[in-house]
Design brief:
The protein has 11 helices and 6 strands. By secondary structure, the protein is α+β, with helices and mostly antiparallel strands. The termini are far apart. The relative contact order is 0.09.
Length: 308
Amino acid sequence: MRLLSICRRLLCAVCLGILSMPSAPAQELEAKVTFNVQQLETAYRDRFETLQNDLSELINNQQWTTLQFANQEKIACTFAFVISSMPADDTYKATLTVQASRPVYYSTYNTSTLNWKDNQLTFTYTEGQMLNYNAYQLDNELIAVSAYYVYLILGLDFDSFSPRGGEAYFQTCSNIVAMMQSSDGPGWKAFDSDNNRHALITALLAESQSPFRDFWYTYHRLGLDAMYQSMDKGRNQITSALPVLKQIRSVDAKTPLLSLFINSKLDELVNIWSEAPMSEKNAVYEQLRDCYPTYSSQLSAIKKEYKE
């Protein structure tokens, strides 16, 4: 893990061109937290300004790992809540969209590592309520959900730099899910949904679907990060690894890992093969269409002729 931290640190510093600049240790995330409360009555909206500030402070200032991140190494991410209703007793229904990205080696480009919408969120909040994270005792739905996605972000980020480097963080996600089994809140239970929090972390840790995590590393570290040396070399690494998607689909056609990938990478996939030979474009399109038949229209852009 120490080697991984050094690798990530050097990569981020080079990408930002500040390798020689001193920096103070900082927490792991640079998160923007927002609450959309337009669906609530005006009288209830003000309290969310306080909640937004408090949750932002928790996510950004909590020490989530044992590693030290410099300011330029922080993982850029967003937590966008949309509050849909308040049934009773200060209990809110909401959706949460979580996004994260990481830099690509020797470029100014950031690649998405997470773009996930959680439609199953309820939580109780009273204005002025303290928000504290205790890894051994989780009794607050909002904090549990936020911590789950913090560790999911960390796991996906570290997996992209080192083969299965995010294992410890995915295990923490699994621990949070286990602790929340007694919760009445949705999203934590097995079989409630094919893509809830339980299903997603179960898939990421399942040995039968572990080739996805190796693919994730190949896509980012051997593919995107290698493109500064050779676009063809990096693209060929990704092209060669694509059959893994069909492999995991054959294991579980409803695996949320397929959604995890396409939600983050759809636009990027079109750009990766923009300058590829037409034979390669067609082959890639066919592979991706087989895995994502409902995205065939968007994926067809891969087959377009490249024009300077």
